[in-house]
Amino acid sequence: MEGRVKIVGQVERVDGNSLTYAEFVDRFMAPNLPVVLTGLTSSWRAREDWTLPIPSDRRLPDLSFFARNFPSPLVQVADCSSREFTDQKRLEMSMQEFIGHWVGDAHGGSNDGDRDGSLLYLKDWHFVKEYPDYIAYTTPVFFVDDWLNMYLDNHPIHRDSDIANHKNEINCSDYRFVYMGAKGTWTSLHADVFRSYSWSANVCGRKQWLFLSPSQSHRIFDRNMRSSIYNLNDDVSEKHFPEFNKTEWLECIQENNEIIFVPSGWYHQVHNLEDTISINHNWFNAYNLHWVWNLLYEDYKVAKEYIEDIRDICDDFEGLCQRNLAANTGMNFYDFFVFIVRFALANAIELYHLQQSEVATFSTKTAHHFIYNLTSIRNVASKMITTEAFTTENLCRISEDNRSAFSNVKQILEEESFRRLLMTLSKAYEHIDRGQSDCLQSWTSYPKGCWSVICLKSDCTVVDHITSLIDEVCGPEDLQKLIDSALSDG
């Protein structure tokens, strides 16, 4: 592959134990740059349970362990040797069938796991959701500010019944995955879902990554910016992709037990150089929230343009656009608005508690998280105001499920699902700022009146305080007002 692309540098490699969270933010997350982190997986149960030792201090997947202990009825498998539209062909099979194929390859197939023309790679296995009591790993502190999975652990991504029944609802139950593939399996050129960040840890095996900066991403698209290059190993047509020869790539050879941070909007192609198991999360937070909105807006424009000719005969043209956007991208404007309203409320609550604290626990550093988060949400909300989806007429058309999910502030604050979200967010920042080893555990109940870890009052009145700032969020303008009040409060 190196001969087909111009590699101009290597991804930086850093000892994760010598890096502070603030340094990670300043050097990599905020400037949106990739990095390999070492030394963070030594305590993971997955290292021992999922692998077998071989000479030279390397390890191989213990396939029989998976067959015995994780008999998932259906897993999603990509056939790396077969393209279907813009991705590899996807299959569903049992874990036993997948492992039987892999073991059969090892004993009777070629060295790269290719048998009968198929090259199978287990992808997007929702391991944490399927086996919540088996703690295979702990998320490194650099990645715990994960709004996407915090939200999906407590809320559905869609609330409209005609969208929620879509097959995507199963696939977006969370974005924590296990990948397993033999040497030679690979993932085609892509940027991650929602333009999220991702982190990927090799439990065993080695991978080659090739990265393209977002500033060059237009060069892998055709003249119409509609289709992108699928495989960097193919002969890329200069006629169809005239800018491709100008691209400059970063390379990374990710070793066993290393974790790679993949920033937003970086296109990448990945090859397994050995039999490999990896743990992967997609996630976003205040630092890349604008990437998520920009993707939704660009995909919305495409969905809208595609059906513009039926606007005059469509009873709910905007609703149709939003349903298509949800089907194509995995989320629509209303799903996203519910999401950011709830995170705005959670961050406003945390900031209020810090400001009202009666003991010397007020931390400027901790407060900075919540102020930055609220400011980021406000900036995105300001871009939503002028969209057609949030006109008064179109807001009147949306379902009651969607409207009540963002409008009635008191109802939201009293929902069990929101309180669990608040607790998880609160614990995440405790973990970031204080390094407490136990603060990412799950609690089913909390002894105080409020579920924030930084609240010391059993008779907390934060619900009354927040509803005094605003009692109803009817659209992006109201969300801005709520945030402005929260930031000026105290």
UniProtKB/TrEMBL annotation:
<dbReference type="GO" id="GO:0005634">
    <property type="term" value="C:nucleus"/>
</dbReference>
<dbReference type="InterPro" id="IPR050910">
    <property type="entry name" value="JMJD6_ArgDemeth/LysHydrox"/>
</dbReference>
<dbReference type="InterPro" id="IPR041667">
    <property type="entry name" value="Cupin_8"/>
</dbReference>
<dbReference type="GO" id="GO:0005737">
    <property type="term" value="C:cytoplasm"/>
</dbReference>
<comment type="similarity">
    <text>Belongs to the JARID1 histone demethylase family.</text>
</comment>
<feature type="domain" description="JmjC">
    <location>
        <begin position="144"/>
        <end position="300"/>
    </location>
</feature>
<dbReference type="GO" id="GO:0016706">
    <property type="term" value="F:2-oxoglutarate-dependent dioxygenase activity"/>
</dbReference>
<protein>
    <recommendedName>
        <fullName>JmjC domain-containing protein</fullName>
    </recommendedName>
</protein>
<dbReference type="Pfam" id="PF13621">
    <property type="entry name" value="Cupin_8"/>
</dbReference>
<dbReference type="InterPro" id="IPR003347">
    <property type="entry name" value="JmjC_dom"/>
</dbReference>
<dbReference type="GO" id="GO:0043565">
    <property type="term" value="F:sequence-specific DNA binding"/>
</dbReference>
<dbReference type="GO" id="GO:0045905">
    <property type="term" value="P:positive regulation of translational termination"/>
</dbReference>
